[in-house]
Amino acid sequence: MRGCCTALSILVLSHAVITVIVLCCIQPIKGEASHIGKYPPHINVDNIDSIQNTYDIPPPSIANIDASRDDKPYIFAKSIPVSILFPIKKIPQHALTHADGNHRWRFRIHSAGALSLSLIFDYWWLPEEAEVYVYNDQQVILGAFTAASAHDKHTHRFATAPLQGNSLVLEYIVPIRVNQLPKIHISRVVYGYKHVPFLESHLEQESHNGVFKYQRVFFTRKQHHHSGKCNIDLSCDEAGTDWSKEARSIAVLLTDENQMYCTGVLLNNARHDGRQLLLTAYHCTKSSNPATDIVMFNHQRRTCNGYNKNKFMSYSDTVHGLKWLAGSSISDYALLEIQEPIPSKFNVYLAGWSTSETPEPPLVGIHHPNGDFKKLSIYNGYLLPACWAECPCKGHWKVERWTRGTTEPGSSGSPLFDASHRVVGQLHGGSASCWNKNGYDIYGSFNTSWTNDLWEYLDPNNQVLTTGPIYIDGIYLNHIKR
Question: Where does the UniProt annotation place the signal sequence (predicted)?
Answer without folding.
Answer: 1-31
